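INFO  loader      accepted 1 record
INFO  loader      residues=365
INFO  predictor   begin
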Amino acid sequence: MTIEEEITDIEEEIRKTSYNKATMHHIGRLKAKLARLKEELQKQATAKSASKGAGYSVKKSGDATVVMVGFPSVGKSTLLNSLAGTTAEVAAYDFTTVDVIPGTLLYKGARIQLLDVPGLISGASVGRGHGKEVLSVIRNADLILIVVDVLHPEQYDTLVKELYDAGIRSNTNPPEIVIRKASRGGITVNSTVELELDDKLIKAVLAEYKIHNAEILIRERVTLDTLIDAVLGNRKYVRALTLLNKIDLIDPERLRALVDRFPEAITISASDGTNIAALKERVYNELEFIRIFMKPQGGLPDMENPLVIKQDSTVSDVCATIHREFVKKFRYARIWGKSAKYGGQRVGLSHVLADADVVSLVMRK
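INFO  predictor   done
INFO  writer      dumping tokens
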């Protein structure tokens, strides 16, 4: 029996089995085995792609990388041009018979790398349609744009499933589970919350992955699926925005129905520019950027060219961004702005900055 056939049989058995107290251990073992087999299938697909010389790496650039995901002909190329405008690069990264097309969005001082990847199709997670190569690019994204054709809203479910099957968890946080493997002592489960999963089920899942000695600390209520994710330890957690494209092709009533179905989605028309400005603002906000304006000693701050960094960054992060030697040579900094108690406050490396702060660094000679 092939791995694909085993997966099909297990999925069918899970579907036919009612979930209750009497069956939860059985279903737990089945789900753990299913995840393990899918992992093996993905490794086989990756090895097959490598043996054919397929695959490529796209060097990350700018302050963040945003990848556009969607079916073929959903309008991603048009969207790339709408977002990047005249800053779009003409080069493409060779991707066997298809390409990843890069562009650059310049917004509020941030330089955001945009990648238009080849369209995903059903079965991409196991290698169909260059799916493994495309998904490897998506795993390195700071933000995913899930682009859905308003005439084919069913595309959304397929895209999310392919991302999930490839180990990409959109809009979720890593589970608060710590697993420390040991050489002896069996499995010890500790938790700071009341759990729906009992020790027997947790041990059965771990056994499927040949973990028989470990200390488990669980800090939140978790599901069977999130427990399996924690055991595998290779899931990628990425923020994602859903875009309903081509809204110029449907009537207002149908659009309202789609908005009800996808309340968090952004409705756009890449071809005529509808809501593109709002999308740029949303992308910027989702990336959690702040702008820092640098001020030379005795001079005026540069308010035209901000340093773009992540929220909750410190003076140390600013130093490291400018030059790796700055942290070593740092004496102190002076801050003007929301994070300062008063203008020109003298602070150290651990000071947390706020958006639009002005920073002056003083270094040892």
